[in-house]
């Protein structure tokens, strides 16, 4: 808890940084090559940080605690902190369900000294997006209560099975918290329940927030601007390393049949509340034959987790990520064009470096390198090589 | 046809199993369809990749052998270039494939690699043209060889990428059904169809695969079949309806096992639901 423990010194304590000196003119007096190189370097550094992988908490249960107090009406993020954060969260929710197909999300807001659960834990992105839409019309009022919010999240996360990864992501704008009791006691309980708490601050660093994150193994960060905020929130898309206290069990899942043409029209279980038109296309739970129009879902009747094989395969990329490519100078390689997109390598700054897959030795351009690692997660060069592709993919 | 151009990337299966069918008709259909796509709209553009059991190769646009091509038969020069590029590429591939001995386990073409390259090509074209107009693009996969499932993960990765880029993957299979490619068409919103005879190929391509997504919605295409999304268990490689999945690495087991063979964790079964945890040090 003492400041000395923290190896990172504050910005105002560190030495004078001459940030402009990293930009160098080249021999013809242009800045562009140097700037391109800096941009490329930062993009790639993000990939390199992500070297995998210990055991991951693949089955995530995440509560987002959103500060909805007076402080969210500040206009330092445009148009307001509230609107800006909700916009970012909208993208986050979509992306989260895309990358973590068997995980669940929930939203809690805190204002007027109380906390309210706005959407329960569920793996249906539409429900959360509706909730976000509703929140846009809710005014931000009063003071937040960190303790109340944590208690609400705790009450539902505590009873989850021990093999799940329990997480809380707090987006906090206020500099105060108004609590009914001792927050340290709540922290103790959170810690005991093995919940990982991360905080993204919109205003400034708070000692209590930093303390929570430190004790529960989460991350703490304060955003500089809207782009930075988006980056910070999106850091939580990747599943965290599994905590040592987590159990491993076998989970029962069902792979439903999709039936298109020869079925009778029926209602699906997922939209029972808002009475959709009858449709014939759907997935049927193998245990109780309840119908669902979209997967993944948890069967409302028998509680079976319903997924498809591609959903599981989508999670494999966190466990078996694509290895980094080696960066070499374009002159050193014999390739004239990118193996992926057929882009001809020219002498411009953007093509100064090319990237070589360590397994199949094919050469890729910078954009393909980034795209392959961020989106595709498999190398087309390795897939086009019979000796490699035959035994790497089981 | 739509006003803006459409980029069609064709992935053509050139596996030696083609010998069982009429290769001449098959290639004619490929070239005719490529020509039709280019001729239908001046803004249309094309990419052709071929894959066999040894490699995947860009046929068009190709960078090698770009000598001055003159108009020869009164047709658009571009069409002649496509013909010759495809012909030249396939010849090289066939020679290379003939030179190496055929192994029995290589019964599948490396289509997933070719699809991955096709997607990267689409991605580059889209970013290049982002300032002028939105480029409509799609991927068309023609498959003749059999299916072994050895490239499962790369296929799925390609489908998910296509889904993210909102690029439909159309699949036309000659001969037997292919469940894996059918999943891809279903995930990305493309069309899947299986033709029995290679002679029907061109006709099917023209009728079902030539029109854009807007026109397709109005068409009375054959109803989609049931797509099999079951997973194969890791222990016996059989397709299962219900399975147990490891909470750590998502390995699929058809019955309860005490230890995960993929990630070596031991499963705890007889624990109480909520564990009182010890203090962290």
From TrEMBL, chain A:
Pfam families: C1_4, Ssl1. GO terms for biological process: DNA-templated transcription; nucleotide-excision repair; regulation of transcription by RNA polymerase II. PROSITE patterns: VWFA, ZINC_FINGER_C2H2_1. It comes from the Eukaryota. GO terms for cellular component: transcription factor TFIIH core complex; transcription factor TFIIH holo complex. GO terms for molecular function: zinc ion binding. Residues 61-246 form the VWFA domain. InterPro entries: C1-like_sf, Ssl1-like, TFIIH_C1-like_dom, TFIIH_SSL1/p44, VWF_A, vWFA_dom_sf, Znf_C2H2_type, Znf_RING/FYVE/PHD. It is found in: Nucleus. Keywords: DNA damage, DNA repair, Metal-binding, Nucleus, Transcription, Transcription regulation, Zinc, Zinc-finger. A zinc finger (C4-type) spans 285-302. Belongs to the GTF2H2 family. This is General transcription factor IIH subunit. It comes from Scylla paramamosain. The lineage of its organism: Eukaryota, Metazoa, Ecdysozoa, Arthropoda, Crustacea.
UniProtKB/TrEMBL annotation, chain B:
Gene3D superfamilies: von Willebrand factor, type A domain. Keywords: DNA damage, DNA repair, Metal-binding, Nucleus, Transcription, Transcription regulation, Zinc, Zinc-finger. Part of a TFIID-containing RNA polymerase II pre-initiation complex that is composed of TBP and at least GTF2A1, GTF2A2, GTF2E1, GTF2E2, GTF2F1, GTF2H2, GTF2H3, GTF2H4, GTF2H5, GTF2B, TCEA1, ERCC2, ERCC3, TAF1, TAF2, TAF3, TAF4, TAF5, TAF6, TAF7, TAF8, TAF9, TAF10, TAF11, TAF12 and TAF13. Component of the 7-subunit TFIIH core complex composed of XPB/ERCC3, XPD/ERCC2, GTF2H1, GTF2H2, GTF2H3, GTF2H4 and GTF2H5, which is active in NER. InterPro entries: TFIIH_Tfb4/GTF2H3, vWFA_dom_sf. GO terms for cellular component: transcription factor TFIIH core complex; transcription factor TFIIH holo complex. Component of the general transcription and DNA repair factor IIH (TFIIH) core complex, which is involved in general and transcription-coupled nucleotide excision repair (NER) of damaged DNA and, when complexed to CAK, in RNA transcription by RNA polymerase II. In NER, TFIIH acts by opening DNA around the lesion to allow the excision of the damaged oligonucleotide and its replacement by a new DNA fragment. In transcription, TFIIH has an essential role in transcription initiation. Belongs to the TFB4 family. This is General transcription factor IIH subunit 3. It holds the Pfam family Tfb4. GO terms for biological process: nucleotide-excision repair; regulation of DNA-templated transcription. One of its GO terms (molecular function) is zinc ion binding. It is found in: Nucleus.
């Amino acid at each position: 808890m003492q400041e000395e423990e923290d190896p990172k010194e504050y910005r105002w304590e560190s030495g004078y940084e001459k940030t402009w000196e990293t930009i160098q003119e080249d021999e013809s007096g242009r800045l562009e090559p140097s700037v391109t190189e800096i941009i490329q370097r930062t993009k790639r550094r993000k990939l390199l940080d992500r070297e995998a992988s210990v055991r991951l908490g693949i089955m995530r249960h995440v509560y987002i605690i959103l500060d909805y107090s007076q402080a969210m009406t500040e206009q330092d993020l445009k148009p307001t902190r509230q609107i800006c954060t909700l916009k970012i969260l909208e993208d986050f929710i979509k992306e989260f369900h895309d990358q973590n197909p068997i995980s669940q999300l929930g939203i809690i807001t805190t204002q007027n000294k109380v906390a309210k659960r706005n959407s329960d834990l569920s793996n249906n992105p539409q429900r959360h997006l509706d909730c976000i839409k509703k929140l846009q019309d809710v005014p931000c009022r009063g003071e937040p209560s960190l303790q109340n919010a944590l208690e609400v999240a705790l009450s539902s996360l505590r009873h989850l099975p021990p093999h799940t990864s329990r997480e809380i992501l707090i987006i906090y704008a206020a500099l105060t918290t108004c609590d009914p009791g001792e927050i340290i006691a709540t922290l103790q309980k959170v810690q005991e329940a093995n919940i990982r708490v991360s905080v993204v601050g919109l205003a400034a660093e708070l000692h209590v927030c930093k303390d929570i994150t430190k004790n529960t193994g989460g991350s703490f960060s304060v955003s500089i601007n809207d782009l930075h905020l988006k980056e910070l929130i999106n850091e939580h898309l990747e599943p965290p390393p599994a905590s040592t206290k987590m159990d491993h069990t076998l989970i029962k899942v069902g792979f439903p049949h999709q039936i298109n043409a020869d079925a009778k029209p029926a209602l699906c279980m997922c939209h029972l509340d808002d009475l959709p038109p009858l449709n014939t296309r759907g997935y049927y739970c193998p245990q109780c034959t309840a119908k669902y129009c979209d997967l993944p879902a948890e069967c409302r009747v028998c509680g079976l987790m319903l997924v498809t094989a591609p959903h599981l395969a989508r999670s494999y990329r966190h466990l078996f990520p694509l290895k980094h490519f080696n960066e070499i100078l374009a002159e050193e390689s014999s390739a004239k064009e990118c193996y992926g997109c057929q882009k001809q390598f020219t002498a411009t700054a953007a093509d100064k470096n090319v990237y070589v897959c360590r397994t199949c030795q094919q050469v890729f351009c910078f954009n393909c390198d980034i795209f392959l690692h961020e989106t595709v997660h498999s190398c087309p060069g390795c897939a086009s090589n019979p000796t490699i592709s035959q035994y790497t993919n089981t | 046809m739509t006003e803006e151009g459409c980029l069609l990337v064709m992935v053509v299966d050139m596996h030696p199993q083609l010998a069982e069918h009429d290769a001449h008709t098959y290639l004619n259909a490929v070239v005719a369809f490529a020509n039709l796509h280019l001729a239908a709209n001046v803004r249309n553009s094309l990419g052709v990749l071929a894959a066999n059991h040894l490699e995947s190769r860009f046929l068009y646009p190709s960078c090698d052998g770009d000598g001055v091509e003159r108009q020869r038969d009164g047709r658009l020069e571009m069409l002649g270039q496509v013909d010759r590029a495809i012909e030249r590429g396939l010849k090289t591939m066939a020679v290379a494939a003939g030179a190496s001995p055929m192994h029995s386990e290589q019964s599948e073409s490396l289509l997933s690699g070719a699809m991955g390259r096709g997607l990267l090509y689409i991605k580059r074209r889209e970013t290049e043209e982002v300032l002028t107009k939105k480029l409509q693009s799609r991927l068309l996969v023609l498959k003749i060889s059999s299916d072994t499932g050895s490239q499962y993960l790369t296929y799925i990765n390609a489908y998910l990428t296509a889904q993210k880029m909102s690029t439909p993957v159309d699949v036309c299979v000659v001969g037997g059904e292919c469940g894996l490619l059918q999943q891809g068409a279903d995930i990305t919103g493309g069309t899947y169809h299986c033709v029995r005879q290679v002679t029907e190929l061109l006709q099917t391509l023209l009728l079902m695969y030539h029109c854009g997504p807007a026109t397709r919605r109005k068409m009375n295409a054959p109803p989609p079949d049931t797509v099999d999304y079951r997973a194969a268990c890791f222990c016996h490689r059989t397709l299962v309806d219900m399975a147990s999945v490891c909470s750590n690495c998502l390995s699929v087991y058809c019955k309860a096992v005490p230890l995960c063979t993929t990630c070596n964790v031991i499963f705890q079964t007889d624990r109480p639901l909520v564990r009182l945890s010890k203090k962290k040090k």
